[in-house]
Design a protein that fits this description.
With 207 residues, the chain is α/β, with parallel strands linked by helices. It has one domain: Phosphoglycerate mutase-like (Rossmann fold, 3-Layer(aba) Sandwich), CATH 3.40.50.1240. Helix 2 runs parallel beside helix 3 and helix 5 packs across helix 6. The longest helix has 17 residues. It is globular.
Length: 207
């Protein structure tokens, strides 16, 4: 079934602003900037006839989609759209030692070791497997126009999986707060990416 899927990252949180790692284990709220970003996205896309809203289990996605939820659009919570788990690094500001460990993990992915993960965290393979289930869910939906609000790293995995790229390619996909990836799915389930991290809606608020 042909579908149009709007995928956005959640709005800004104070943790984003402060450079503190969130992942799936930190359930933070949007800050004032994040709420303004969410409203700006709504102002721009409120007339799109969304039939379904999909959010992760984390409230920063719910808060970003709230203006659409307030319209009474059916909404579902799906953990497969959660952010990647960064394990012991979550809730902490990045420091040189953490950055060293992170870079070693990325280097391992480059060498095709997708089992590499931060201490206590999710591996690239686990993330990709989970995102595959998220894509299967979207394909199974009867609704034709869908809004998805999710997270930066999981969005990167979504794009590489859609395009059949190796997970090492995740690093090339930028993701701004409320940045939009516009997807089009044809009748055979093939997905094309029409817009990459589009932030035109943020121009009125200067973000």
């Amino acid at each position: 079934m042909a579908k149009t899927i709007y995928v956005i990252r959640h709005g800004q949180t104070d943790f984003n602003k402060q450079g503190i790692i969130q992942g799936s284990g930190v359930d933070s709220d949007l800050n004032d900037t994040g709420r303004a970003q969410a409203q700006a996205f709504f102002d721009c896309y409120q007339d799109v006839p969304f039939e379904l809203i999909v959010v992760s289990t984390l409230k920063r996605t719910h808060q970003t989609a709230q203006p659409f939820i307030n319209k009474g659009i059916p909404t579902t919570i799906n953990a497969n759209f959660n952010e990647m788990s960064w394990g012991e690094h979550e809730g902490k500001p990045t420091n040189p030692e953490m950055l060293k460990i992170y870079k070693a993990m990325i280097a391992a992915w480059e060498k095709d070791d997708l089992t590499a993960a931060l201490p206590g965290g999710e591996s690239a393979q686990q993330l990709v497997d989970r995102i595959g289930k998220a894509i299967d869910y979207l394909k199974s939906c009867e609704e034709k126009t869908i809004l998805v609000c999710m997270h930066g790293r999981s969005m990167r995995a979504l794009m590489t999986t859609i395009l059949g790229e190796h997970p090492r390619k995740m690093e090339q996909y930028n993701h701004s707060n409320t940045g939009l990836f516009l997807l089009e799915m044809d009748d055979d389930g093939k997905i094309s990416i029409l817009k990459h991290n589009n932030t035109d809606h943020l121009e009125p608020i200067g973000s």
